[in-house]
Amino acid sequence: MPPQAEAIVDLDAYRANIATLAAYAPNSALMAVVKADAYGHGMPQCARAAREAGAAWLGVATIVEALALRADGDTGDVLCWLASPGADFASATAAGVEVTASSAEQLAEIIAAGARPKVQLKVDTGLSRNGAYGDQWTALVAAAAAAQSAGTAEITGVWSHFACADEPAHPANDEQERVFTEAVAELAAAGVTPALRHLSNSAATLTRPSAHLDLVRVGIASYGINPDRSLVHDATLLPVMTLQAELAAVKRVPAGTSVSYGHTWTAERETTLGLVPIGYAEGILRTASNKGQVAYGDQRAPVTGTICMDQFVVDLGDASAQRGDVVTVFGPGGPTADDWAIAAGTIAYEVVTRLGGRIERTFRGER
Length: 367
Fold this sequence. Notes:
The chain is an alpha/beta fold and 367 residues long. The protein has eleven helices and 19 strands. It folds into two domains: 11-223, TIM Barrel, CATH 3.20.20; 241-364, Lyase, Ornithine Decarboxylase, Chain A, domain 1, CATH 2.40.37. A hairpin with a 2-residue loop joins β15 and β16. 49% of the residues are buried.
């Protein structure tokens, strides 16, 4: 049976995006970020495609994600960076996964797991999330130098993350580069010179060559989504995901018919309504009620009424639609993920990463 709702992931488009982004930083290695199930696109499949496209590194947030890559057969360089106290650093190290230390205390915990782990150090240059800041960085540098001298850890990298790279003219970008350069110099003065320095995310890869350094980390752009809808660049990025669904019901209704919970939409004319069998249980944002659109053939059909847990209704006008016809929620030939983000008052990252529930994923271009 064909799926009632389907997220079609085009791995050829994904590979093309990886190649496009790599060309923007030709002197840097590339890390394909596949955290959060590859931003909702399917981590195992995208990880394999990234390697096929030449990605030297894969990046994930958690140890669990990194171990899932290993279980799927990946043997290349992998970095993870988000771990609470008590994380399974021993398993990560045993699997050859590189982990991140954001404080001297965390580095001690990693080392205590044994087996001379490969560790990258994260410095907080102004995002104020993870990473060592100020005196914390000085303490982490000292601990890293001691660990390297004692042979209890191999310090392989130092990195940070931009807060405003999707606004290339924002003064925070220059300031974060300056702080990062000083942090690396402090590390070198302590006798630690990791092979990898990395700072650039997707937006900086596209717009900030000075920050490319030894490695760039590409996430959202690799899935064909602009890091910010206002970010200007000349890269051709191909949308990787198309979300489609079959109409579960079609009905002709008279003017004055109200739709869905709360009757927040009422037909001003006789029209045809189509029922799309996905809702907020599948990650369709309820805040896009009465604002989102789908594509039906060559026309756009607006969402009418409140998006429900399992379904939402669209206005098909006078189209001769029938049950089983396919609508494109977003993807080539229809609205974009960013169109839905605008309708919902959010960003395209959230639109794709939250998809789940009863949506089936289909992968095209697997090798």
